[in-house]
Amino acid sequence: MRMTKDSEPETSESLKTFGAVLKALRDEAGLTQEQFAPRVRYSATYVAKMEQGRRFPPKELVPRAEEVLGAPAARVLGAAYRTLTRKVGLASWFLRWAGIEEEALTLLAYECRVVPGLLQPEPYIRAIFERRIPHHAEEQIEQGVAARLARQRLFAERPHTSFCFIIEQALLERYFGGSEVTKALLDHLLEAQQRRNVEIQVMPLRQEDHFGFEGPMYLAETLDNQWVGYVEGQENSLLITDPKDASAMLRRYGKLRSQALSPQATTSLLEQMRGAL
Questions:
Q1: CA of residue 12 relative to chain centroid, distance
Q2: Computed from CA positions of residues 35, 37, 40, 43, in that sequence, does the dihedral angle turn out positive or negative?
Q3: In angstroms, rounded to a whole number, what is the distance separating the alpha carbons of residues 48 and 50?
Q4: For the chain, where are the E strands, in sequence order?
Q5: What is the pLDDT of residues 78-113, one digit of tens each?
């Protein structure tokens, strides 16, 4: 499995095969994607992406599909899934997280390296892609920018999802990409903060009692109210599904929220920084 950073993953033959099997079984049952999706407790968009080979199917799909398609179809789908899981590599972790992110009831993020992708305005996104090593071709940059902007539709498409972000103040003080990019970033954050389902908190430059020393983290509450964690490093990523580990991350995130500026104080700081530019 190969994946283009921050854009739609390049699909593999195994994912496409699984998607084709899922579609064939759904068609055989006489169900449209819109009819099938709620019965397996996923959105029609997510089902479509699984059938296209663009999303790694969750392990819960097979038993849920059995309730809808029957045991024989579930055995076929399960066999396809087992073949898929033997072939996937590290990139599959991102594919699974992307699917979890699209269906989450709650999304939490803490970042100390770069502003989270869901909050990046176009100039900031371009500044990131232009500094990628190895360097990207112009076509790759355009594809990456378009894909990341498209991902931000989650705010509007998931109005009942709670999005919470904690960002280190140092990221805003860095002036990454220059003053014009920083202006666009601050304007974008202030605009996002006005959404009822988005909450942004800035971690002050000076914070002696800081629980974020273990690095960035992302957490999602799934439709069945389970918590899943996600972390990224240099050219790799990890999906954390063990309940104990996810619980520890959730507790650390709670500490970070108590140490960061309140959303109201964050808005005041962003306005002050924007006015100083």
A1: 20
A2: negative
A3: 5
A4: 106-111, 162-168, 198-203, 217-221, 227-233, 236-240
A5: 888 887 754 443 345 566 787 788 889 999 999 999
